[in-house]
Specification:
Dihydrodipicolinate Reductase, domain 2, UDP-n-acetylglucosamine1-carboxyvinyl-transferase, Chain, 2 domains, alpha/beta, single chain, four-stranded mixed sheet
Amino acid sequence: MLEIDGSLYSGSGTIVRQSVAYAALTGRPVRIRNARAGRRRPGLRAQHLRAAEAIRDLVGGSLRGAQAGSRTLEFWPGDRQPAGRYAWDIGTAGSATMLALAILPVLALRGLGSEAEIRGGLFQDFAPSVFHLTHVLLPMLAQMGMAAEVDLVRPGYVPAGGGIIRVAVPPMAGPLHPLAPRRGETPARVWGISLASHLGERGVPARMAAAARSVLAAAGISAAIQERSDSTAAQAGAAFALFADFIGGTRLGADRAGAPHRPAESIGAQVAHRLLGEISSGATIDRHASDQIIPYAALAEGTSKFTVPFITGHAQTAGWLAALFLGAGIHAEQHTLTVRGHGTSTLRTGSRQEHDPPVRMPGWDHQQPECENKQDRPAPAAGTARDRGL
């Protein structure tokens, strides 16, 4: 059993989600201790539990320590291949998008074709929005050979949650290809989505869009922004996203959710400034996608190379785990991130091939011990989410 110290690097739920997903892919049991030690309220929250339980359901594995507040989680992967329809409800406004990110590689690389409905929060601070997942990450995965669709059924905001997304992932037609997007100096197109629920009478979509257009116009950029008013969400809320498309395959994104006492104009203006920052950095992948793409680059056959605005703590975490579970070669130098993929030919062997050295990033010198505790695994949990209907 591989033991992971959840206090290292970002000390976040990313360590929990990615470790359990890697364990499912490699067949290697894992124990995560000090879960979310770097967060204000350490221990597992509903969204982390649902991600672990969802992966358990998909592969027929077993969990120990899967309780709210737990700081230690153990996972034994099973041999089931995901197929059919699944449904999970986080039960809070916890990020449904994060759960989707956790299960995507398992569905793609172990699955026989699956669909899932996920309920929870879709737009909140400190979590990727469904807009970013749909319009930034999924197009990159399509370039790598992984087809997946995510549809927004109903928006969900803090604190009520209640958002719904549907995820569809067909079987992989071949190996994952490496990704090395390019870009010109200026974007060929800038566009966006301005969404508000139960706030149409206050003109929130138009106000967010107008503020963003004003900031972009001062930089000599025009933007086509779609304004959407929704009446299906469980509560009032808003979300705003902008994207910049470049010739060469690069798409950068920036977004922000609404919140009480956060004016619509400030949301639009802040997202526009963030996107301008991504553009001016020369990046070929934005700061949020930089950590999300690393697991797929590590599983690709070949070397992926990206220019990033800066190396985030989440990117460091993703690189550390990719090297630990797969032996992927990770190298960062200033704004360039290179990932030498491990490929998928040895997945489910439970072994890790060594590279010399597996991680070559300043400060990435933590060593993970093998767990010496050989306790018997618990019995598989009764019942799964299989075929619960969409």
